[in-house]
Amino acid sequence: MVNNYGPTETTVFATSGQILANGSLHIGGPIANTRVYVLDEQLQPMPVGVAGELYIGGAGVARGYLNQPQLTEERFVVDPFSDVEQARMYRSGDLVRWNADGTLDYLGRNDDQVKIRGMRIELGEIEAMQAGLEGVKDAVVLVRDLQLLAWFTETSALDTDALSPAMRARLPGYMVPRAFTRLASLPLTANGKLDRRALPDPAPAYLLGQAYEAPKSEVEIAMAAIWARVLGVERVGRHDNFFELGGHSLLAVNLAEQLRKAGLTADVHALLSQPTLAALAAWQNDAANVQEIYPLAPLQEGILYHHLTAGDSDPYLLQPQFAFADVSRLNAFCDALQRVIERNDMLRTVLFWEGLQTPVQVVWRQAPMLVQETALHDLFNAPRMDLTQAPLLHLVYAHDPANHRIAAVLRYHHVIMDHIALDVLSHELQAVLLGNEASLVAPVPYRNYIAHVLQGPGDEAHEAFFREQLGDVDEPTLPYGLVMASADQIPGEARLTLDIALCRQVRDQARQLSVSAATLMHLAWAQVLGQLSGRDSMVFGTVLLGRLRGGEGGERALGVFINTLPLRMDLGGHCARSAVLDLHARLVGMLTHEHAQLALAQRCSALPAGAPLFNTLLNYRHSAVPEVDDQASNAAWQGIEVVHAEERSNYPLTLCIDDFGDAFSLTAQTAPGIDPQRICAYVQQALVHLVQALEQQSETALIESSVLPEAEHALLSATFNNTRREYPREQLVHRLFERRAALHPHAVAAVHGRRSLTYGELNERANHLAHYLLGQGVKPNEHVAILLPRSLELVISQLAIGKCAATYVPLDVNAPAERQHYMLDDCQAKYVLTQSAMSTGSSVRRIDLDRLTLDDQPAHDPGLPQASDTEAYVMYTSGSTGAPKGVRVAHRGVT
Description:
Blueprint: E1 2-5, E2 15-18, E3 29-30, E4 34-39, E5 52-58, H1 69-75, E6 76-78, E7 88-98, E8 104-109, E9 113-116, E10 119-122, H2 123-131, E11 136-144, E12 147-154, H3 160-168, E13 179-182, H4 218-231, H5 249-261, H6 268-273, H7 277-284, E14 290-295, H8 298-309, E15 317-318, E16 321-324, H9 327-343, E17 349-352, E18 360-364, E19 370-373, E20 393-400, E21 405-413, H10 419-433, H11 446-455, H12 459-470, E22 492-497, H13 500-512, H14 517-533, E23 537-544, E24 563-570, H15 576-591, H16 598-603, E25 616-622, H17 630-636, E26 640-644, E27 653-659, E28 664-670, H18 676-695, H19 710-719, H20 733-743, E29 748-752, E30 755-758, H21 759-775, E31 783-786, H22 792-803, E32 807-810, H23 817-827, E33 831-834, E34 845-848, E35 871-877, E36 885-890
Parallel strand pairs: 12-13, 19-20, 23-25, 25-27, 31-32, 31-33, 33-34
Antiparallel strand pairs: 1-2, 2-3, 4-5, 5-7, 6-7, 7-8, 9-10, 11-12, 14-18, 15-21, 16-21, 16-26, 17-18, 20-21, 22-28, 23-24, 27-28, 29-30, 35-36
Helix pairs in contact: 4-5, 4-7, 9-10, 13-18, 14-15, 14-18, 20-21, 21-22
C-alpha cells in the first residue's frame, strides 16, 4: 500500500511512500521535482524528529489563488532554499516531523495548536482524550477569551461534573478545559464541516469552580497574599488554580521569584505540577522531607530513558493483580505495605532529572502510599506514573460483587525494585501481617550499593573490555527482524518446565566442566538465536544479578541491582565442549564490569550510532523458594490472593530461566506474531542436543545442531508439504482444451473488447490454423514465434501451435527490435506468426495472420502424438548478463 499526501495547491500530491505491514503510518517523502521543508516560525529547518510546519516547493506549486492576492501572498512565499530564480513555496499549515529514513510523520493542523497562559497546547490532543472518555461521542475544544472550553455529544447520559476530574487524571491541569457544554449535535456548515463559530457560549452554571475556602496555615496565608499581588486579584482561596486565575508562564516565573524573596521555596516546575494554592503550600514541606540524594544505578538510567521516550505507555510499569476477601483484609494489606515503605529507603525514592546534568534519586522521609477506589472497568485505566512523586507504589481497588471480592492492582515501577527485591518485599509484608516485624533485620540502604558501584572499575576499563568483545561487530543480531517491542503491545507469553531428567543432565555436565548451569543455558539460547537470525556469531542481552557489590546484606536489600549487558558468542568452528568453555570465560570476564552502562557497551561495537546491537534478552535467575512455615504463611495471606503478576520487557524476544535448585522453568515473552511456545521448545531442544554432544564428547560443530523439535520438524517437512494431488500429468494443454470444447461448445471461452469466442468457435479456428501450419511444414518440437498484441488471435495461435506438437515462443510487441531478433535467433524459430503491419526485421519466415483465409482448412483436431514432457512454450525473461534467457516449460508443468 502506498500513502500519498498533497494539498490542491501543489498539484495532486507532493509526498509518497510505501506503508509496510505492521510498519509506521507516514506520508512518505517528496515525489520527483518537489521539495518539502519542515520549518519553524522563523523559517528555520527543524531537526529530525522535531515538529514544525510543512512548506512545499518545486515544480508542482500552484500560481496562487484566483482573485485573492492577499491570501496568495500569505500562503505562497519566497523559497529561500532554492537556487531557482523566483522560486516559491507553499505554506501548508500542516504539522509534520522528519523521520531518520527520510519519511514524514503527519501530526495534524497548525491551526489546532494554540498558546494559552504561556503554554503551547494541541487542541487535537485534548479533543482525542475527551472523545476517549466513556459516554462521549464527539468532542470539540476551542479557546475563547483566553479560556479552554469544551463541547461534547453523548452516546449515553453523562454527568458533566465528572468530566473535569476524568480529564485531570489524564492531562496536565493547564490542558483541562474550563467548561464542558453538552450538545444534542454538533453544528455544521452547509458543506458538512464543523461550524466552530456556531458553538454556544457555556452557561455560567457550567463554568468550573469551587466555593471559596480561606487559606488556613501560615504558609497558605503568606502565599495567598503573594498570589493576589502577582495575579492582580482581590483574594485567593485554598483551592484556586493559578492558571484559572489568569496566570501564565511569565507570571509563574515572577511568582516563583516573589515566593523566594518571602523565604518560601518554589519554582516553575513545582507550580505546573501543583497549580492550586493548597497543593503548592503542601509542596513547601517537601524540601524538609528530603532524606538524601545520590546518583542512579546503570539500569535505573536505562529504565528512566525508556520511561521518558515511551510516550503514554511505559514498559517498566508493572501491575500485579490481587483479590481481597473483604475490606478488612484490604486495609491490613495496605497498612502492612505502608509499614514496609516506612522501613525501606528505596520505597520512598523518586527520580529527578529536569534541569540536571545527570539524573538523581531522592529519598523522602515520609511517603504515604496512594490508595484509590475506582470502578471495576477502570481498574487498569490508571494514568501514567509520575516518577517524581513517592512512593512509586499505588494501590487501586474496586468492588467485584459478581465474584464476592475486592479486586485490586498494585502498580509499581521497576525503577525501584528488581525480581529479588520483590521477594524481599513479600517476605517483609508477611512478617508485618503476622505481627512479627520485630523479627526483621535492619534494612540495607540502597546508597551502600551506589557507593560500591562508584568505587568499582571506571568507564575506561569498561570500554576496553567491551571494545575487545564487540569491536568487530558490524551487524546487529535481530531475530525476526524486529528492533524493539512497542510498550503498548501486550506480549505473548509461554512457560515450560523442563523434564527433570534433562535438568539433571544439564547440572551433571556443568559440574564436569566446572562451570555453572547458567553457562549451558546461555549457550543454548545462543544456538536458538543463531538459527533464528541465520548467524554463527551473535550478540544478545544478558541480565546480571548485580549484587556482588551490594555490600553486606546485599542479598536482602530492596532496589534495582540487576543490569543488562551485551554478550557476544561465536559458534562457528566450536564443538560443544569448547563452546561451553569459551562462553564461561566471557561470562566470568563480564562480572568485573557488571555495572557498566549498556549505552557504553553498545558504543564499543562497529555499528553506527543509534543502531540496535541486539533485540533479545536472557534473564537467568535463582528463584529457589526459601523454606517457610506454611501454616504461618497461610495465616498471613488468608483472604489475600495474588491473581496475576506480570513481567514486561522492551525487547521483542525475552527468555527468563528460573533456577529452582533442582528444576528449571522457561518463560518466553514475545512480540505479536512470534509464538512464545515455539521459543521455549527451541531452547529445550537446544539443551537436549547440547548435553548429548557433551556426553558423547562430540567434535561436531555446534552450529550444525538443529533447535527444531521433532514435532515442528515434521510439521515443516511433512505436514506443510502435504500438497500431493492427482492431476492429468500425462495430458497436453491443447488436448485438455479440446475436451472442454467438446463438453461445453457454446460456453464463452475468450473475450477481448467487444469480441468473444465460445469454446467450440475457438477450437475450430485453432484447428484451421493448425492444419494450415502443418501444411506449411511446421514440424513437432519446432519453435514457432508469436509477435502479436493481446488479442483473440494470440490465443488462437498458441492453441494452434500446440496442436502441431510444436512449441510457441511469445515475443513482446513493445520490446526493442534488437531484443526480438536475439530471441528469434536464440530459439532458432522456424516461423513467426504476426500481422502485416508489424515488422520483424528478421529472416525468419513470417506468416501474417490477417492475410490468411482459413475457412477451407479442416476443422477437426489434428491429433498428433506427443508426450506430456515435451515443450509447450519457451518464455523469455531478463538474464543477469543483460541478454534475455528462455525458460522451457513442458505441457505437464502447465496441465
